[in-house]
Amino acid sequence: MKKRLILLLSVLLLVPSIVFAAKDIVIEINGKAIKSEQPAIIDNGRTLVPIRFISKALNYEVEWDDDDREVEIENDDAKKGEVEKVTLKIGEKRAKIEIEDGEDRYIDLEVAPAIRNDRTYVPLRFVSETFGHNVDWNNDTRTVIINTVK
Question: If DSSP codes are grouped into helix, strand and coil, which group holds residue 12?
């Protein structure tokens, strides 16, 4: 009887922490909170967001290649030396970066893009910083803060 009571109390103590841990991640761009139809997720300590949502918010174009399961994020306003295009492949921890009038390069990622709920999720910090934006994280409020430089 005593073991059951201890087990029950342990479970009851854990339930609130599980509920509170599910608090949505807030994303701010230049001080303004933006909201996606699908929530951001945390994978291996990295925030992933639906690619169309963040690309639209940062004014980039997105192309999806269903055959290769690749997504391209393009900055049509790239100037010489700036990132023009980023290509990410679902499940791969490597991204291709194309520089306007420069050489392509490859970057290793800490977490691979993924498909969740029929949406392509990409690492938010990587995409934002690759295009030159500043990114910060407020752990107390679970907020990603992006400040654009353009």
Answer: helix
Q: Domain of 70?
A: 24-147
Determine, yes or no, domain membership for 78: yes
Alpha carbons 121 and 116: distance in angstroms, whole number: 7
DSSP 8-state assignment for residue 2: H
Question: Which tens digits make up the pLDDT trace of 36-80?
Answer: 889 999 998 899 999 999 999 999 999 999 999 999 999 999 898
Instruction: Output the pTM of the full model.
Output: 0.80
Distance of CA 75 to the CA centre of its chain: 17
CA atoms within a 13 Å half-sphere pointing along the CA-CB vector of 11: 6
Strand partners, 28: 33, 145
Query: Do the beta carbons of residue 60 and residue 53 sit within 8 Å?
Result: no
What is the rounded CA–CA span in Å between residue 90 and residue 69? 6
* Residue 128 counted as domain residue: yes
